[in-house]
């Protein structure tokens, strides 16, 4: 049976993890490779690396990191953050990334989704959508949720699917950082209208939140960062909990 | 042990090379018929689209070479599909090692079954030395929209929408639909078993 995926997300700056991590077994809390290996050993189903470096030579540093990660772990991983061109994607895939995720580049120039899907296959193109509810309407935001766009989330999700995205990473900016649970309503709405998988992100605080986003939210995968980094929820415990709740997960 | 990984225009071959390195094999990415023929093992990886891949294989005469190979041969993902007789993906005649068809997943309800089939799913009815040490609690990572139907050559099945061939075996030819190089300890075991055949 196809299982629901649990995906830890690592924020990367200049080749190091940021936002802090709290693992006793880590020798170097900033080393993304070491952290990736721990998550992989704990049973994470996939990993997402989000690069937040703002410098020009970031691509080189990121590609080097991707190679190190690909050599060290044998579960799929996605790389995102500032990816805008076919060339960016080619470099990261050749370095060993399984999928790349694009966000503002897609809202600025939606055709890039078609081009990337044609060139590399839909399976490796994840479109990240940051959504925020403004007076009852869900709008797409960019730049970490700071910049509004005129795109309505539901319509945009449908469009990126039609343009050839392989998966959608849906982050609710209203829920992100609150630890009050995922945005189940809009996740369910988007998941139901699309033929491609939806990864829910933003708001994880308790194990029950994962159960809810898989049942009520109809998500295919759930992503979280801090609760995993600070070991508030160890992945093996989370999976045992979900299994008890009749949600199929990889043991 | 020398392992030739067949080079063609497909994505993320790098992970296969890294996985082989981790297992201590000497992996070489090549489309040179001589190097492929001389290797102890051949891996035919793949991701991408069937007709483009077949065109490339033909342009390098690899479509003639592959069926003649005698050493253990392992098709992965698109590699499995290309070893079948025919793929519905752009109406493509394939290599025909396995006389079966590759079909597109067509769910009755997309809300229940997304396509592509992405994520971890388990193997069932495992029946091969290639799967030694594994049982139906073994999960592997899938990303695909097309699948090979069940046949007498099926050595493990997976269920998604319907049952399909998770792994195939005929003579020296083996094939897997999932990505063993991305399937954690289970995938590593499958690759290791292949190298130990």
Which properties best describe this structure?
heterodimer; A: 251 residues; alpha/beta; 10 helices; B: alpha/beta; seven-stranded mixed sheet; four-stranded mixed sheet; 13 strands; 26% helix
SSE arrangement:
The complex is a heterodimer of chains A (251) and B (197).
Chain A: E1 5-13, E2 16-17, H1 32-42, E3 47-51, H2 58-72, E4 77-80, H3 86-95, E5 99-102, H4 104-108, H5 111-120, E6 125-134, E7 137-142, E8 147-152, H6 153-163, E9 167-172, H7 184-193, E10 198-201, H8 207-215, E11 221-224, H9 226-229, H10 235-244
Parallel strand pairs in A: 1-3, 1-11, 3-4, 4-5, 5-6, 6-9, 9-10, 10-11
Antiparallel strand pairs in A: 1-2, 6-7, 7-8
Helix pairs in contact in A: 1-2, 2-3
Chain B: E1 2-6, H1 14-22, E2 26-30, H2 33-38, E3 41-44, H3 50-59, H4 62-68, E4 73-76, H5 78-83, E5 84-87, E6 92-93, E7 98-104, E8 117-122, E9 139-144, E10 146-148, E11 154-160, E12 162-170, E13 173-176, H6 184-196
What does this structure look like?
The complex is a heterodimer of chains A (251) and B (197). Chain A has 251 residues and is of the alpha/beta class. Chain A is built from 10 helices and 11 strands. Chain A has a single domain, classed as Aldolase class I (TIM Barrel, Alpha-Beta Barrel), CATH 3.20.20. Chain A has an 8-stranded parallel β-barrel, surrounded by 7 helices. In chain A, α1 (32-42) packs parallel to α2 (58-72). The radius of gyration of chain A is 17 Å and the shape is globular. The two termini of chain A are 12 Å apart. The model of chain A has no long low-confidence stretch (mean pLDDT 92). Chain B has 197 residues and is of the alpha/beta class. Chain B has one domain (2-196): Class I glutamine amidotransferase (GATase) domain (Rossmann fold). Chain B has helices at residues 14-22, 33-38, 50-59, 62-68, 78-83, 184-196, and strands at 2-6, 26-30, 41-44, 73-76, 84-87, 92-93, 98-104, 117-122, 139-144, 146-148, 154-160, 162-170, 173-176. In chain B, the strands form 3 sheets. In chain B, strands 2-1-3-4-13-12-11 form a 7-stranded mixed beta sheet. In chain B, 53% of the residues are buried. The model of chain B has no long low-confidence stretch (mean pLDDT 94). The chains are: A alpha/beta (251), B alpha/beta (197).
């Amino acid at each position: 049976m196809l299982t629901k995926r649990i995906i830890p997300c690592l924020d990367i700056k200049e080749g190091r993890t940021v936002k802090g991590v709290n693992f006793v077994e880590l020798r170097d809390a900033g080393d993304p490779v070491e952290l990736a290996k721990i998550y992989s050993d704990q049973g994470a189903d996939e990993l997402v690396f989000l690069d937040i470096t703002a410098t020009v030579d970031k691509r080189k540093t990121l590609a080097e990191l991707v190679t190190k990660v690909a050599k060290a772990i044998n579960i799929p991983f996605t790389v995102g953050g500032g990816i805008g061109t076919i060339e960016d994607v080619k470099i990261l895939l050749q370095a060993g990334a399984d999928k790349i995720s694009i966000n503002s580049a897609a809202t600025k120039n939606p055709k890039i989704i078609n081009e990337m899907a044609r060139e590399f296959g839909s399976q490796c193109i994840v479109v990240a959508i940051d959504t925020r509810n403004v007076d009852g309407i869900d709008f797409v935001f960019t730049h970490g949720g700071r910049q509004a766009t005129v795109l309505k989330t539901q319509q945009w999700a449908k469009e990126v699917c039609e343009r050839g995205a392989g998966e959608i990473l849906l982050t609710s900016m209203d829920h992100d950082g609150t630890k009050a649970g995922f945005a189940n309503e809009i996740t369910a709405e988007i998941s139901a209208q699309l033929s491609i998988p939806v990864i829910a992100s933003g708001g994880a605080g308790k194990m029950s939140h994962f159960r809810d986003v898989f049942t009520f939210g109809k998500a295919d995968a759930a992503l979280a960062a801090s609760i995993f980094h600070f070991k508030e929820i160890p992945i093996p415990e989370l999976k045992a909990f979900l299994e008890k709740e009749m949600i199929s997960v990889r043991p | 042990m020398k392992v030739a990984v067949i080079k063609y225009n497909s994505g993320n071959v790098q992970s296969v090379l890294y996985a082989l390195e981790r297992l201590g094999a000497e992996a070489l990415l090549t489309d040179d018929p001589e190097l492929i023929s001389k290797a102890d093992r051949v891996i035919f990886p793949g991701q991408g689209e069937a007709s483009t891949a077949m065109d490339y294989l033909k342009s390098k005469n690899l479509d003639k070479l592959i069926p003649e190979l005698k050493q253990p041969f392992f098709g992965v993902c698109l590699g499995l599909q290309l070893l079948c007789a025919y793929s519905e993906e752009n109406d493509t005649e394939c290599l025909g090692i396995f006389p079966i068809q590759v079909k597109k997943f067509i769910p009755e309800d997309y809300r229940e079954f997304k396509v592509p089939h992405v994520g971890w799913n388990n193997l069932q009815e495992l029946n091969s030395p290639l799967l030694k040490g594994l049982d139906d609690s073994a999960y592997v990572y899938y990303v695909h929209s097309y699948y090979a139907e069940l046949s007498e050559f099926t050595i493990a099945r997976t269920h998604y929408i319907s049952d399909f061939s998770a792994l195939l075996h005929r003579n020296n030819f083996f094939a897997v639909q999932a990505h063993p190089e991305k399937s954690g300890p289970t995938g590593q075991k499958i690759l290791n078993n292949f190298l130990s055949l």
